[in-house]
Amino acid sequence: MNAGEPVPYHLSRRDAIKLGTLGAAGIVAACGNPARLDPRAEAISNPGNGKPSRGGVLRYGLSTDVSNFEPQVSTGAAATTVQQLAYNTLLQYGPTGAIVGDLASDFGFVNPTTYELTLRDGVTFHNGQPLTVDDVIFSLRRIMDKRTAATSAKFFTGVTSISAAGRNKVVLKLREPNVVLPHALAATSTTILSKEWITGGADTKTTMMGTGPFKLVERVPGVSTTLARNPHYYDSDLPHLNAVQFLPMPDDYSRVEALLSATVDFIDYVPATHIDVVRKAKGVTFAGDNTFGFGFVGFVTNRKPVSDLRVRQAFAYGLDRQSIVETAFLGNGKPITGGLLPPGILGHDPALASRYPYDPDRSKHLLRQAGLSTLDINLLTTSTYSVIYRPAEAALAGLQRSGINPALTRQEWLPFRETVKAHTFPAHVWGTSITYGDPDALRDFFGSGGTWAKYWNFADDRVDALLGLGRRTADPGKRAEIYHEVESRVLDLLPCTYTVRRVQGEAMRDYVKGYAHPKNGTWTQVSLRGAWLDKP
C-alpha cells in the first residue's frame, strides 16, 4: 500500500481464527487491486436444493465508489448500500414495505407522544461488545446533535427526551404526536453505533464497526470495498454469504458488460439504455420499479433570474418530458407534469398529474411577462450518474424551443453536490428517490430545513404548517387531504419542477437468490443481508 493510504480495518489473527472456514483469513491487501480472497471463501455448500446455500462471495458492480463510511450522514446510494450490511437500525422495511423490527424485537406507541422499543437479546458489535440501551440512546442523541449534521436529524426535531426503562427498553418522548416516527427509526441513516467506539476517537469516515451481518475487511479507494461474514450476527441464519466485494464501476456500459460476462454477480442502477437488453439476456434477472426514482430541475429561489416565479414556470412548461423519456431512457419511464407522489402512496391525486404540460408558446409568453425576450441561463448537472445527466442533456432541445438557452455544466458527483449546496448556479438538474412510503417524505423536499429545500433556499409557512399537521394526524383520509394541499401549493410556488419518473432497478445473475427489490416507496437494499448464491 502507498504510505498514508487508509486501510480501515485489519483482520487480527484472533479475528481470522474466528472467521475460520469463511475464508476471510486468507484476504490479502493488494495495492491497486481488490482484496484477494482465499479460495475457501468461494466454496458454496448444498446448492440446488431449493434452500439457502451457505458460502461464496458476491461481487457487486457498484455505480460509483463509496465516498466515505460515516453511517449517519448520507453521501449517496453507494455508501448507503455498503453501510446497510455493516450496520443496523432499530427498525427496517420488510419485504412488502411494512416496518418490522431490526435491532428492536418489540416496538410501538404506548400513547400518542410516547414510543417504546425493546432491544433484542444477544446483539454484539463487531468487536464483541454487547449492544446496550446506552449505545442506542447515544446514537439517537448523536443524530440530534447539530454538530453531526446527520441526515435523519430533521425527523427527530419533536423528540423531547430519550431514556432507558430497565435493561433493554428505550423510551422516546415527543412534544406532539408524530405518526411517522417509525419511518424515522427505519431510515437507513438512523444507524446504531457503539458509544465506546465513537467516544474513543473512531474515524467513522474511514472505518466501520457496527452490529451488521458483515464486517469491513478492506477498502482500496477507487478499486474495491470488501466485507466478510460476521459469524456472531444476532440472526444465526444470516448471512448466507462468506463475503461481499463491491467493485466501483461508474461507466454504465462496463457495469452491464461485467454482469453479462459474469465478471460480477450483481449491479445497481441498470442504465435505462440497457434495461431491455438486460431483461432479454440469458442467465440474468432484472428487479426494478417505476416508483422511486425521479428527476427534477431545482431552482435557487432567491437568485435571479429564477427568483421570478414566471421564469420558473417558463422552465416547467418548457420541458418536453415525453421526449426526455424517449431520448434519455428509451421509453423506460414516465413524464411527471404535476405532483410528485406516485400511485400507491397515500395522498396521490391524479388531478394534479398534468399541471405543467409541454407548452413552448406559454413558456415564451411567461418570459415576456418577466421582461425577457429569451433566457440565457447557466444550468448544472453531474457527469457521474447517467440517470441524472442524460435527462439533463435530453431536456435542452425542448427548452431551446421554449426560448430558454441553457449552458449546461457537468461536474463529478461530490463536487456537484458541493456546488449545489453553495448555490453557485441558479438552477440544477438532479435526480433522487422517495426514501419511504409515506407522503411525509415531502418534508425533506419542501419543509423548512429539509435537505432539498436548503438547496433551493425554499421555505413557506403554510407548507410547514401542513406538513406538521400531517404528522400529527392519524386518520388516513384526512392525511390524504393535507398532502394534496401541500402538493398543490408547492406546484404554485415551484421551488423545483419535476421531469420524469424513471424505471430504476438492479440486475443479477440467475444464481443470485434471496434479493428483493424494495416495494411501496421504501428505498433500501437491506434484503442483500439475506442473499445467497445457488451455483456449484
Q: Could you write a compact summary of the structure shown?
A:
29% of the residues lie in helices and 24% in strands. The protein contains 17 helices and 25 strands.
Describe the structure.
The chain is α+β, with helices and mostly antiparallel strands. It is 29% helix and 24% strand. The relative contact order is 0.15. Mean pLDDT is 90; it is low at 1-31.
> Averaging pLDDT over every residue, what do you get?
90
Number of helices: 17
C-alpha-based Rg, rounded: 24 Å
The rounded distance between the terminal residues' Cα atoms is 34 Å
Alpha-beta content class? alpha+beta
Total number of beta strands: 25
Low-confidence stretches: 1-31
Q: Which range best describes the helical content: under 10%, 10-25%, 25-40%, 40-55%, 55-70% or over 70%?
A: 25-40%
The biggest beta sheet reads: 7 strands, mixed
Strand order in space, largest sheet: 12-13-14-5-15-23-16
How big a fraction of the residues is strand?
Answer: 15-25%
Q: Globular, elongated, flat, extended or rod-shaped: what is the shape?
A: globular
